[in-house]
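User: Hi! Is it possible to get a structure for several chains at once, not just one? Here's what I have:
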Amino acid sequence: MHFELNEDQAALAEGVRRFLTDSYAFDQRQKALAARDGFDRGRWQELAALGTPGLCVREDAGGLGQSLLEATLVQAELARALVIEPVAEAMLAALLVDRHASPSVRASLLPELVSGDQIAVLAHTEQDSDGLAHNLTTKAERKDGQFRLNGAKSVVIGAAEAHVLLVSALTGDGPVLLAVPRNTPGVSLRPLELTDDRWAADVTFVDVVVDEEALIGRGAEAVAEAFDLARLMACAQMVGAMEQALALTTAYLPVRRQFGQALADFQALRHRLADMYVELEQGRSALYAGLSAALFADAGERYVAACAAKAQVGFAARTVCGLAIQLHGGIGMTEEYAVGHMFRRASVADLLLGNADAQLALLADAMLAEQERAEPALAQSVDSSQSRNRAIGGVSH
Amino acid sequence: MDLSPNHADEAFRNEVRTWLASAVPADMALRNRGVYHPTREDAARWTAILAARGWSAPGWPSEFGGPDWSLSQQLIFAEEVYLANAPRTNLQGFSLAGPVIYTYGNAAQKARYLAPILRGEEFWAQGFSEPNSGSDLASLRTRADRHGDHYVVNGQKIWTSDAHKADMLFCLVRTGHDGAPQKGISFLLIDLKTPGITIRPIRSIDDGDGLNEVFLDNVRVPAENLVGEENMGWTYSKYLLGNERAFTAAELPYCRNMLRRVRDCAARTLRNGRAILLQGDFLLRLARIEAELRAMHVSVLRLIDMDGDLGDSALPSVLKIRGSELQARLASMMVEAVGDHGLVRYRGWDHGGPVDVGSAPPEARGSAADFYYRRAAAIYGGANEIQRNIIAKKLLKA
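Assistant: Yes, the chains can be modeled jointly so their relative placement is included. Here is the combined structure:
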């Protein structure tokens, strides 16, 4: 493995960062937020013009043909700048359509997604399914060349702006991923404002009928893969937020003076800054480990690595962004200063798709399953209720 | 950035694993299955076996008798050696004395000292810390005064790991008394049989006697045993500590091996009829360590990939801090996994060998000693608080 960005990767990250610094600086963002009247399509088109939605779409469909790795670089930048438009979500959804849709859907839908004229987002999370494909409570019935969809998804970021929802559902033949136009009869949204200034919605599906063409992913594997990639995107966003939180804190400590000296001269504070760095770097490594598995390992290892990464990065993000507030003191608690926003963005990214504790429980289940294969006697002493949905408690670490 | 696994490394792992399967003598593997420190006899015998294969000094270039392995190959080798229950070899010789001698020593020193390290014939100890110079090593006071073709050394070293089993001491001594304390330090190679040296073992809380005080009273050391130039010892030792921190600090091979052992033991050991693995938050705590170790593995690969060019990164300190914390957590969970016998005093091989552990899991041997011993990981090689100072200095550039 090699970890230094190559020229193209560095240029990509730098380009996005420069654009966001120029056009999405924190004060500009705050002003735009205050004046906000719904979704700002002009702003969305500017972000899409960077090539973000089609970043990982193959070039024959007009995309930039980049890998997940490049996607995470851009996602980190979007989080650093506290972008509220669903760019990250659209990027993942376009990637999934590109990989799994039928040739005709690819041909008709992808150019619209790549240009930003239409937005697709993944609608997968359900509070009761832990994100696991075989546990989905949203059901799809397949009959006469159509799917009839019933169920609900919670806190889908970008659902209100989206034209197409990529919905995971369980059929008699196993899980599927369906591309459902948002204006299909039976789809209803309950908009939710998230604490990091983004918009989401709870989405319900009542007898929603779509045709065969809507099938863009078949089998547990396609659904599981979508969810694992979503986990890794969330990790990248948390890494971006942590980087910015550490950068802001590092810049603040030498400037702020108390008791006649700079905060940077208090060893207690220096050590906490160092703790932030340790967590950030371990979190970054966790993201790379998850990415490496998603790019090169089999499905089982990809899943375990993604859970481990989101656990590690989630715990790290709580620590790093929390300490960033602490080291700023009162100013860190204010709306007008960016560091508190990093904590909010990281907290949302941690919570959605299952927080660090939930990911840890999934990892523990996977470890237990492996141990049971090695030692069948152990399996007998595990009652079935324990291995799934283990009580998730505070873990000392 | 390219996150593809290196397939050549996996082929290397297989080669090493295959060889180790038949190379470690059965009796030796049995003695070193636990986490006791190996006896000198086992360490010497194993070093000789490795030397015959050309593998005793994984980190050395071929010019000096090493196998020219990349850092990632060295990491793989260290993991496989652990898995094969082979004893640890003389770290101070292979990772510290040897590299300083072949990097800064003269031709005569290389000819005299390297081969006996490679073959396991001479063991080394590190004479750095002193009673009043621990983390603040540059304040050391053991002095060496030049008298003709000898240095006369007076002073005291402490925490000298394995000095009681060693033949040679590489030692930081004060030769200059003006200017910054770092400027007057030299690097001397001292034969531990020289008159005037007294070694007093210090009993440690893990019942080990690996730590020692070394008293130097008018010890005459030939001037030819000075490494490099006089008063340049601090520079050489920084290179050493860099070596120590860069690669061994995380103790990834130990941690990965321990995670597996803790898991296996806790799955087999019952309490109230149920495996300890399934009790309370045991499995969740283990999963937390699994997540950390997966990240740590990549952190180590990142450091290897930097190839010595750290730039603004303080990654070695990250590995030292988090690696030592993980060692302590794993050693502590091993004690839990063993059950009621976790803290029974089953002595190591240097003290007559472990007695019968009765119905306790075999991991009871050595788990208590290791649990106590691992507290030291956060202290040696630059205490974790020193590492935090290093990180903060890098971040704040002041």
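Chain B has a mean pLDDT of 92. Chain B touches chain A through 51 residues (CB under 8 Å).

User: Great, thank you!
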